[in-house]
Fold:
Amino acid sequence: MSKKRFGLLGKNISYSFSKGYFTEKFSTEELADCTYENFDIPVINDFVTLIKEKHQEIYGMNVTIPYKEAVMPFLDKLSKKAALIGAVNTIKFTRKGLLKGYNTDYYGFKKALKPLLQPHHKKALILGTGGASKGVAYALDELDIRYHFVSRIPNEYSISYDQINADTFDEYQIIINSTPVGTSPNIEDAPLLPYEFFTEQHIAFDLIYNPAETAFLKKAKAQGAQIKNGLEMLVFQAEKSWEIWNR
Structure:
């Protein structure tokens, strides 16, 4: 019986949520012909070699840091939303042998955030400007929530961390960490924010899921903020990826 191979494209991804999630899914649903593995490559150009060697066996990939944007030039097609977002986290290997990029991050984030929203949650700060932040921004657009990016190096599209103060927290009621800061094993690290300005009116959402409660979330929670990590978002985006691969 030939195997249907799926996997995660990334760098230093031994911690991968996706491999464990899909391996358990395949076992639970008795999909004995499906496997999921990590495609851990040091540079994106190695993607070309990977595809040449394994193209006939692979049905789909997820994509994680740092390749959500870098992989795009290597794909044959993009979904409309992936093109608009400017980042890809799902690749479908089509029956015609083409590679088509999708973004399911925005879907997962939107579905995970929506139950937390109250009428006063009108504006959000997105910490980070990498590939993950783009899916977050697209989801916020769909939810009609205005947002601003925060970056270590400010530009016309973002402010710097040291520009954030009490007035900023009054204006922005949702703070989203889309950076890897605080990921295990560096669990003491947190974005450089004035955490004393979080209140019970704020949502702190961290795309990180390991640890389950990052230093960012702990500090926000201590001030009364509602918190959520990225695990549910990952489950939602993973199931959306599975749907795309199988249609």
In short: The CA atoms of residues 145 and 223 lie 23 Å apart. The longest helix spans residues 231-245. DSSP finds eight helices and twelve strands in the chain.
